[in-house]
Specification:
Structural class: mainly alpha
Number of domains: 1
Helix content: over 70%
Radius of gyration: 43 Å
Number of helices: 10
Order of helices and strands: HHHHHHHHHH
Oligomer: single chain
Number of strands: 0
Distance between the termini: 180 Å
Largest sheet: none
Length: about 350
């Protein structure tokens, strides 16, 4: 072996040793670092051993996000409804458990329109007198059951008096209804204190939303009732003037039954709310797990309260018809007797 061949072999051996030293990591303490085993990950996301990385189920994650968004949306809607109904219950113009004077007979708008209609009714007295004269002629010619002159003049005077004081009579009826509602006690919506608009359970949010929507329907019904009472107060002079003539007495009876029914139906509804709230407090405990039951019982009481005007509509007028007839008849007889006494004194 020549010197050149030996030199080439030495260089090749030195190159191999250099490559081995470069490929092997060496620490400061010259202690080799063991390699960390990597755990194998199963297809379902669970590692077979050691420390693994598990990803969440996309379908479950999407369902959770959707439920949370839905709960937040319904809670926002429930919070707005709760604030709306609560603002009406806590204001001086609360028209759910009373008929506020500022929104009925004491309203400047109602008073102004009533004065206009009263002027129309006073002007219509001339027309009523002409029709009554025709009735007297027809009574003599056809033997009709129209009142005679001795009964007509007291009736005309009483009708004019009722027409010009109708707002005062309406105020008396509304104040009587408010006194009856206050005598029942402090009434509010049943289960109102059980409504938690911040709950995070979907079933609780849906139940509370149903309760608040039913409360909103009751609020709208009471608002429409108040508007109807105002309209009846405004047209009361003409309605009571219609009582004078036999041809228009049906309009007077319709106004009377509608007005008394609209006013005093609220008293029955307040009694229902008061009774339902008291019974609900007795039968349902204050435990958190009974809150949903109390809310649905409150929905039942509110639904019954909404049905009361329809249940009473066909019966209130019949009962008040006798009272109306008795009051009108007694007033006519009083004026007739006083007119007869004045005539006899004049003859003396």
């Amino acid at each position: 072996m020549t010197i050149a061949t030996g030199l080439r072999a030495t260089l090749a051996l030195a190159l191999c040793l250099t490559l081995v030293l470069v490929a092997t990591p060496v620490h400061a303490d010259a202690t080799p670092v063991p390699a960390t085993p990597v755990a194998a990950t199963q297809p379902n996301g669970n590692s077979s051993g050691g420390v693994g990385i598990s990803l969440p189920d996309p379908r479950q994650w999407a369902a959770d996000v959707f439920n949370q968004v839905l709960i937040n949306l319904l809670n926002g809607l429930a919070g707005a409804l709760h604030a709306l109904v609560g603002s009406v219950l806590g204001s001086s113009l609360n028209f759910i458990t009373q008929t506020p004077p500022a929104g009925s007979y004491a309203s400047p708008t109602v008073e102004a329109l009533w004065n206009v209609v009263r002027g129309i009714a006073d002007a219509a007295l001339v027309l009523v007198a002409l029709v009554s004269g025709f009735n007297l002629i027809a009574r003599a010619q056809t033997s009709a059951t129209y009142p005679d002159a001795l009964e007509f003049f007291p009736r005309l005077a009483l009708g004019a008096l009722l027409a010009n004081t109708s707002l005062w009579w309406g105020q008396l009826v509304i104040d009587a209804n408010n006194a009856l509602c206050q005598a029942v006690g402090q009434a509010t919506l049943p289960a109102w204190d059980r409504v938690d608009v911040g709950t995070q359970l979907l079933v609780d949010v849906i139940g509370i939303l149903i309760y608040l929507v039913t409360s909103l329907l009751l609020l709208l019904q009471m608002l429409m009732r108040l508007a109807l009472v105002d309209v009846l107060l405004v047209v009361s002079p003409l309605a009571l003037l219609c009582w004078i003539l036999p041809q228009t007495q049906g309009w007077a009876r319709l106004w009377t039954s509608t007005f008394f029914g609209s006013v005093f139906t609220q008293f029955v509804q307040v009694v229902t709310l008061r009774l339902g709230g008291s019974l609900l407090t007795e039968v349902t405990p204050m435990a958190p797990d009974a809150a949903l039951l109390a809310v649905f019982l409150g929905v039942a009481v509110l639904a019954l309260t909404l049905k009361i005007p329809g249940l009473l509509r066909t019966h209130v007028g019949d009962g008040l018809g006798f009272v109306r007839y008795y009051v009108y008849r007694q007033g006519a007889r009083t004026l007739e007797s006083s007119g007869g006494a004045s005539t006899s004194n004049g003859g003396l």
